[in-house]
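Below sits the subject:
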Amino acid sequence: MLQKYKRFLLISGIVVFIISTPIYAFMKVVLPDALLERIRSELPDGVELKIDNVSSKLDLAILYEGVQLTTNSQTIEIPVLEIKPILSFKNPVQFLAESFSFQTETSAISASKVEGLVNISKISLHELTIEGKFNNIKSPEDIVLSQGEFVIAGLNSQSQDFDLQANEVKLTLRTPQGPLFLNINNGRAMFRKTDTLSGTIQAQKFDFELVSKDNPNIGKAASAGEAQFNFSFEKPNEQAPWALPIDAVLKKIQTKNGAIFDRFEVQARGQWTGNSLLKCGFGNLISRDLQCGKMTDVLDMSIKLKDENRFLHFFGDGFCVAPDSGCRQTIKAKLESLGTQELFSELMNSGLLSPVLFSVFMGMLMGSPSANYEVEHSIDVSVDGGTIFINEMALF
């Protein structure tokens, strides 16, 4: 009986070897080029793929060297990309890249040790999902993301989803007042791209510091225990202008001087003017096509600082207030407060605001009691050109 089993196993092994040998040869010799041609056939118009060399390894992994994917304004470069099959029905393909770079006309981003799994539904790139992890991502603009994961869904479809998580994100922004340093811990960014773009950015801890360009030893710093930022580009119809609604919430804010606030909320809607009423797609908008006009107005603005039963609320509309608007700025707004004296004392100790301007606004607000029982003090704030008006009286 045992001899029969041995004979059966021997014959089975020979059959498997005879069958698998041409399959193995096909996987090593034919598959790399076949897969490459399939990818090229699925690329959208205007996208060009170049690869210097293609080879395969004993474990059936495929090595693509000198990978370059280009469009009119973007370039992706991967010196060596390794793609290998794995035993998984859900994620049959794994890719590895020691380095990865993404370049546009205005920026560049590089990543190291990128690993990912590809989920292909119906063998079509229109249903392709990539998920993976990275060691770090950085750019010349001082953006660094460390130890994270990502998911990209619908890579070549009309609707695309991008989900990125990182243990730490460091970002440096150049402002007229000086460099602004941002540090995000346990951050997550989720974006959806259709014919527009929307997204959410979250962080479990958020720190920032604005350093004076005139005196690097002087800075304004604060941190938040939790932060969330939402945005969406919107164009209801061809006749309507483009708009950019945003809202942000920071919780448990603490300054380096010890001041603590429960919640900071911002809501606003940026609006384009000029030629944006003409046909202008999202791609034209992002590339700053002249036919799209430009964002000039910030409407439905609301900035609110809350602390227990106290609050400071600034809200209103601003016209021609965005940078490079090219028109005379006008602001019509209102400033309301509750628990004014205690809240202003905390703000003064925070060191975040200009003491001179802050003292002027505090004095004007304390001298304007409100008839609304839910509000302690209230003033009207307006700006016409370079002149600030408080309750219709010029401030300077």
User: Anything to note?
Assistant: The two ends are 106 Å apart (CA to CA).
